[in-house]
From TrEMBL:
Reactions performed catalytically: (7R,8S)-7,8-diammoniononanoate + CO2 + ATP = (4R,5S)-dethiobiotin + ADP + phosphate + 3 H(+)
Catalytic residues as annotated in Swiss-Prot or TrEMBL: 36
Primary location: cytoplasm
CC cofactor: Mg(2+)
Matching CDD domains: DTBS
Gene (UniProt): bioD
UniProt-annotated binding residues for substrate: 40
Annotated protein name in UniProt: ATP-dependent dethiobiotin synthetase BioD
Binding site residues for ATP: 11-16, 48, 106-109, 167-168, 197-199
Organism: Nocardioides eburneus
GO molecular function: dethiobiotin synthase activity
Length: 217
């Protein structure tokens, strides 16, 4: 199975959510690989794939690395390089699907961020590979609109939405966050799969994998 993990925006906890999904699948005996088609900001040491491996120990692959912490098409333009087409990423991911129970594909930023020079997006990649999607969203004010727009775009393209994950659940949630626990699934007609506590990404692998199951359900 191929599953894309997208966010309603940048900074919503997509990488930690991807790690949580991977760790949970590994704990259930599945063969898992995590793919990051495009990683930006590598000149600053950014690597979501490396962070997922640190938290979970599972196999990771990173296809295209770009120096600047920008949207991939902008980062490539500034660097003066040409990005591979999304179809090339799709071909590589389909090969992985033949040898793994679960291929998790973490996008860059939101669903419609350009991953190549021809306007290809994570939405295109999901449609081309027959993937379903998990949408990582924020907890507080504004998340309902962002989440519903993302879910709607996926469904309009024929991509099934497996559910939502709140990428950083505050230790002391405010009124909006508490209301959103019920409103998010109601507005999107998608189940809330998990609430990942803020700071989970700072845990070591032993604690992360030991605690991850409690964040779901």
């Amino acid at each position: 199975m191929i599953r894309v993990v997208t966010g309603t925006s940048t900074g919503v906890g997509k990488t930690v959510a991807t790690a949580a999904l991977a760790a949970r699948a590994v704990a259930r005996g599945q063969q898992v690989v995590v793919v990051k088609p495009v990683q930006t900001g590598i000149a600053d040491g950014d690597s979501d794939a490396a962070e997922i491996h640190r938290l979970t120990g599972c196999a990771v692959q990173e296809y295209t690395g770009l120096d600047h912490p920008l949207a991939p098409d902008a980062a490539a333009r500034v660097q003066g390089v040409t990005l591979p087409p999304v179809t090339e990423y799709a071909d590589r991911i389909r090969v992985l699907d033949a040898f793994h129970d679960l291929v998790l594909v973490e996008g860059a930023g939101g669903l419609l961020v350009r991953l190549d020079d021809d306007g290809g997006t994570l939405l295109d990649l999901a449609a081309q590979t027959g993937a379903d999607a998990v949408v990582v969203c924020a907890a507080g004010l504004g998340t309902l609109n962002h989440s519903e727009l993302t879910v709607r775009a996926l469904r309009e393209r024929g991509v099934d939405v497996a559910g939502l994950v709140i990428g950083s659940w505050p230790a002391e949630p405010d009124l909006a966050s508490r209301c959103n626990l019920g409103d998010l699934p109601h507005h999107t007609a998608a189940p809330l799969l998990a609430r990942i506590p803020e700071g989970a990404g700072a845990l070591d692998r032993e604690r992360f994998t030991a605690e991850v199951d409690g964040w779901f359900g």
